Amino acid sequence: MSAPVVAGVRNAATGxxxxxxxxxxxxxxRPGMIGQMVTVHPRVREQMNAFGVDVVVLCGENNVAYATxxxxxxxxxxxxxxxxxxxxxxxxxxxxLRPSPLDLVDNARELGRALTDFPGVVxxxxxxxxxxxDALRGRTPTDASTLLARAKIVxxxxxVDLIRRAQRINELAMDVVxxxxxxxxxxxDLTSAFFRAIFExxxxxNTVDPVWDIVPPELAQLSCTLTGHLPFPxxxxxxxxxxxxVIFNDTxxxxxxxxxxxxxxxxxxxxxxxxxxxxFDRWCxxxxxxxxxxxxxxxxxxxxxxxxxxxxxxRPWFPHLYVAHGLGTDSAELPFCGTDLGPAxxxxxxxxxxxxxxxxxxxxxxxxxxxxxxxxxxxxxxGCERLTDYTYAPYTSAPVRSATA
Length: 405
Fold this sequence. Notes:
This protein has helices spanning about 40-50, 60-70, 75-80, 105-115, 130-135, 145-150, 155-175, 185-200, 275-295, 300-310, 345, and strands at about 20-25, 55-60, 85-90, 95-100, 120-125, 140-145, 205-215, 245-255, 260, 260-265, 325, 335, 355-360, 360-365, 370, 375-380, 385. It is of the alpha+beta class. It folds into two domains: about 20-150, Creatinase/prolidase N-terminal domain (Creatine Amidinohydrolase, Chain A, domain 1, 3-Layer(aba) Sandwich), CATH 3.40.350; about 155-385, Creatinase/methionine aminopeptidase superfamily (Creatine Amidinohydrolase), CATH 3.90.230.10. The protein is globular, with a radius of gyration of 23 Å.
């Protein structure tokens, strides 16, 4: 691919060259513009038509990746924001730009001027800075998040395959980390081993700061939270693991713009107790009941109801999170099951083949700790299929499979 160059278009007011680098344009060649070939995901334009939107401005790297296939390099978040790509997509044209940092007023105004080539109703996914908001104010953009969510909620076979491959990389990396979770190791030791493994295995990025939460047996041993429940996730530090610790882990990587999500519970230095094994068995019952409920025509609320019923009428998930969420270009996206929006809203979200869900129930017995794990499933024509394929050791040596898997 040829390296992008600064556009050779002069600003009539200042006489300076535009700071916008054009990576690709379907509008025809312009002086000094060299780019890569990209295509626009047909579901984006399908939803643009449905919402009556003439042009979409995409600033979020996950949305740019979904809509154009342009994958941002893995880098520190501040640098990523300064080197972002921006896609301008109309119903029959598009341009992929590499602007100079958009927190500067002049650069944001250049983006606004580039948008003048695209008339009609504008929608934007996010504002990376206040100058961008000001620069686009005259076009009164609408929020593109619902449009994009509807486009992304059902995955193609190719997209499911990328999620499956991303998850496998995540699982293989956890094979490297799991033997290191012993008394005397630190959380940072686990994180460094995980990072090295995922990139050696071919990951293109890391999406979740690895979580190795050391959970106590009772909530009273923790600082107060707004929900009165376990604070999860908690950023990892250099805390050293001790014999008998219980770890709730949570990791996620990126493969060519598509995410994985992994979660398990590990005990440190000793086998699970009889009470801990009982917690695991109850977690399995919730998981299998949820999987039995996941099928075309069921709703997001049906999944939450199934989880609650399997847990004797109590919600088996953190009150600040949910029992299930979608997975795609984002590590958590629609559909969500068990949010504080309630069943009246979630009954409107109907499951369909091609949707990908991450089930993450939690069993908690205050005074005895608990069990948490995550399972990725794909909605199929007649039920669901597990995409996660990883052991539950040390609680059992093999994955737990339900009749619907």
